[in-house]
Structures are given as C-alpha cells and as structure tokens.
Amino acid sequence: MSLDFNREPEFPPYNVYPPRWSFDNEKAWQLYRRAKREQWDEQDINWEKVKEIASGLDRKQRLAIAYWWSLLSTFDNATPVFAYALVKSHELHLDTAVKGVITTITYDENRHNVMCGLAINSVLPGYPFDFKPQDDLERKVKLNTLWAWYNGSRYWKAYLEAYSKYTMDVLFTSFMMGEAAATTVFSTMSKGSKIEEFGKAFKNTAVDETRHYAFTHLIMTSNAASMNDERKKLVSKQVRAGFVFLSLITYRPPKDFWRLPPWYLEVTEKMEDLARSAGFYIPEMKEKEEAWRTAIMRVGATLGRYGVPMPAIPELGITGEEIKDLKEDDFVPVF
Predict the structure, then answer these.
(1) 120-164 residue pLDDT tens
(2) Burial group, residue 320, by CB count within 10 angstroms (0-12, 13-18, 19+)
(3) How far is CA 178 from its chain centroid?
(4) From CA 323, how far away is CA 139, in angstroms rounded?
C-alpha cells in the first residue's frame, strides 16, 4: 500500500482515531461534573453489619433476600452494555462530555453489580451456584434465578447488533424507562428498609439512577426535533420494550418476552413476603404500579413534547400507541 506522506491521512470510518475534543455541550458537561461529584464506594457499606443481621434470620428469609438481589443483578450486570456504548461513542466521535458521562455510567454499573454480589455474599454466600436446595420451594427459587439470567443472555447478542439498526438517540431511549422506574423503586426501598445498610445502598443507587435518567433524557431531547416518523415509532417501541424487560423485578413479567418457569410469579411473591418479614423492604404490588405510572408520566411528558407517541401499557390500564410486533431483538434496555 502506497502512502503519500505529503497529504493528510484519510482515517477509516467508525474508528476511535483521530481523537477529537468539544467543549460546547454545557448540559452534558454539567452531568459529567455531577457524576464525578456523586461517586460513592460500595465497600463503604458495612457488610459485616449486614452479615450480623443475616445471622439472626432463618434460612428462608436469607434465601429470599439473596434471591431478590440475584434478580436485580439481571439488570445490574450492565457494565459491558455501557462499556460497549462507550466504544461506540468514541467510534462515532460524539461530544467529549457525552463520552465522559457514558464512562461514568459504566463505572456506576460496575459498582451496582459488585454491590449485588456483596449483598448476596453477606446473606447467603455462594448463592445460587453453590446453593443446595433442601425442599421443592428452594429448588424453584434457584431455578427462577438461573432462568432470569438466561433471559438476560438472550438479549445480549441483540444489543451488540443494535448499533447497526438504531441511532444513538433511539438506542438510549431504550434506557429511559428503566432509569425513570429505577429512580422511584430505589428511593422507595431506601426509605422503607429496616436494614439500615441496605437503606444506604438503595439511597446511593437512586442518586445514580436519577443522573442516568437525566442523561438519557438529554440524549433523546437533543435529537428529538429532527426525528422523522419512522424514528419516532422506533422510540415508542423501545419505551414499551423497556417496560416489558424491567417488569421482571419491578412488576409482573408479561409473556411477550419472558421465558420463565410456570411457578415463577407464585414463588417470587412468596419470596418477597419472606424478605419483607426480615425487614427487607420490597414495594407491594400497588406501590409497584404507582412507581411505574410515575415513570410513564415522566417519560410520556417528554415524548409528547416532540410528537413521539406514548406506547400503550395495557397491564397498567394506560392507552396509547399499540405495539404488536415486539421481537426478541427489539429488547436492548437495561436498568
């Protein structure tokens, strides 16, 4: 290959070179500075105190708490999701501050994932892989966890391929619903928890999720005015997908995506009651519905300003654009 060094080189597309810097996206810079200020350490939670409290609980209560954290980890195993988004943001040469915020979200998600592991290790070490069920209920609980993770694995390939299907603004709209719901869920759990250290963890996580929602809102609104009707329909579809995906832990999982054991819901409700009896606060169904309605109102208000149809959420009695053709590769949202 002959190169003419007297001319400037032509860089290949979708490449992280040449590096570029931009400093005029003030809203993104504000979020980036905020993200750096609000960092916290999951190891500052007193896990020894959690272990001490767990030692006073019975086996089923400890299993119930470990089970809830394992379901949460289905969504908090999101470090590679945002790490991949970070790579793409550099390939696409997005604003410097936008790349910076995605870097901080990647770090946040790693912290959330480690927190799930520390919580499980503190109440029931080795769950689920080293856990030996002693009865049929425990067997079903373990299977529920593994099947939840299996469902997470189903969308990973679709996520990797999503960047060839969606623009960055549409893709990040997928995350809006999750971040909006997470803010409410974790705030509620932090206030209701009788286990102080878990309350601290949920409060800190809620701060992160509030910031993540602000970022997804910024990305969507920055491009919404230029969206054509086709992209607006894609956004509506992704908002619906966000509800369906996150319903596993925040509501009841609809059957149009999830492949779960027939006993999943019954066993989960039993475990939630046991966790509550141990002082681990999990919102009741009415509170879950209210959290989702709050999230939908927040997201819907934003979409409405730009003429993006809000999808129907029939599970909550919310009317809107009916989404009938959700396919497995449409599911790219995370928590």
Answers:
(1) 999 999 999 999 999 999 999 999 999 999 988 887 877 888 887
(2) middle
(3) 5
(4) 36
Domains and CATH numbers, the chain: 28-330 (1.10.620.20)
- State the DSSP string of 32-100: HHHHHHT---GGGS-HHHHHHHHHTS-HHHHHHHHHHHHHHHHHH--HHHHHHHHHHHHHTT--HHHHH
Tokens of 192: 């209701």
Query: What are the helix and strand counts (H, E) for the chain?
Result: 11, 0
Give the list of residues 6+ apart from residue 231 with CB closer than 8 angstroms, or none: 167, 169, 170
Q: How far apart are CA 33 and CA 18, in angstroms?
A: 25
Residues in CB range of 304: below 8 A, 6 or more apart: 310
Is 235 within 8 Å of 173 (Cβ atoms)? yes
Q: What whole-number distance in Å separates Cα of residue 319 and Cα of residue 335?
A: 24
DSSP 284: -
Question: Which tokens belong to 119?
Answer: 């919580």
DSSP conformational letter for 102 = H
Say how many CA atoms lie within 13 Å of 198 toward its Cβ. 28
The string of pLDDT tens digits covering residues 33-50 is: 999 999 999 999 999 999
Non-local (6+) Cβ contacts of 207 within 8 A are 38, 40
Which helix (H) or strand (E) element contains residue 28?
A: helix 26-37
Asked whether the beta carbons of 65 and 278 are under 8 A apart, the reply is yes
